[in-house]
Amino acid sequence: MYFISFVFLLVFILVSVGFFTLFERKVLGYIQSRKGPTKVGFMGLLQPFSDGIKLFIKEQNFPMNSNYFIYLVCPFLMMIQSLFMWVLFPYYVNCIDFDMGLLFFLCCGSLSIYGLMICGWSSNSIYSMLGCIRSISQAISYEVSLSLILLCFFMLLDSYSFLDFFYYKNLVWFLFISFPLFFCWFSCCMAESNRTPFDFSEGESELVSGFNIEYGSGGFALLFISEYSSIIFVCLITTIIFFGSDFDSIFFYFKLVLLCFVFIWVRGTLPRFRYDKLMYLAWKCYLPLSLNYLFFFTLLKVLCFYHFFL
């Protein structure tokens, strides 16, 4: 049953990635005063399937001086890594229940940088190499703040399991007790998933297409799937932590879709950050803020313990 439930989960993730791309194209179209895809199927609903078939049947090109084997394998590794994180989906039955979900998320999430690095290096292109160097420094900067913010809430829970957030859903949304921390977390998530305004590993104006410049057809589709499934998973984690994790309610999934919409809205609205300002934001703004909140939550935990047990 574990295997069957996880296979069903993967199928629905892949379908949701396809419709997320359609959702993004529609929203960006209306932001730019146009309609987006409308031709394939009713109101363009079959456009994701058309795009997927087109990408996978296109001819695969091999750069002359690239490392062929690593160049081919790397997109598969990135997709496996992004889908592997979905075992943390907080089921009640028929899937793995992680008592150490936080540690698994931090370990598995930080592996994505290796995929970017190997993709950029194996293509043997100066643009892709610059893109992977940028993404490495960006990930190192923002994963520190991301880990500290997560530690704040798991310290309050006194547990490392994402399922335990369910017990607090009727008491309080953690958004209300840490409103500035939510914006810090959300921008760190955008930086981790290489989304606008922090898409420096794919900066079109400077690096043509960044680390994936030499990839086309199926390889590009796999990289695309890994990026978008990671975005949906990050929105899921954000909903669980900040907006009440009532998994049995359809309202929970409406909040998840709303956060995905905010990702697209930011992409259609904000220009790309300057790289030195990105580093300044990570080390001079987000890191002190997350550290101060960590001390605040530690003090809150000590006061609660003192009040209830002494």
What would you note in describing this structure?
- With 310 residues, the chain is mainly α.
- The protein has one domain.
- It has helices spanning 2-31, 47-57, 68-84, 101-109, 112-122, 126-157, 174-177, 179-192, 204-207, 217-242, 250-269, 275-309.
- It starts with a helix and ends with a helix.
Run of helices and strands: HHHHHHHHHHHH
Report the structural category.
mainly alpha
Main sheet characteristics = none
> Would you count the extended β strands for me?
0
- Catalogue the unreliable spans: none
* Portion in strands: under 5%
Distance between the termini: 46 Å
- The overall pLDDT average reads 82
Q: Give the overall shape.
A: globular
**Helix content class:** 55-70%
The total tally of domains equals: 1
Task: List the total number of helices.
Answer: 12
The gyration radius over C-alpha positions equals 20 Å
Question: TL;DR of this structure?
Answer:
69% of the residues lie in helices and 0% in strands. The protein is mostly helical.
Task: Give me the secondary-structure topology.
Blueprint: H1 2-31, H2 47-57, H3 68-84, H4 101-109, H5 112-122, H6 126-157, H7 174-177, H8 179-192, H9 204-207, H10 217-242, H11 250-269, H12 275-309
Helix pairs in contact: 1-2, 1-10, 1-11, 2-10, 3-5, 3-10, 5-6, 6-8, 6-12, 8-10, 10-11
Defining traits:
310 residues, mainly alpha, 12 helices, 0% strand, globular, NADH dehydrogenase (ubiquinone) activity, mitochondrion, transmembrane, NAD, NADH_UbQ_OxRdtase_su1/FPO
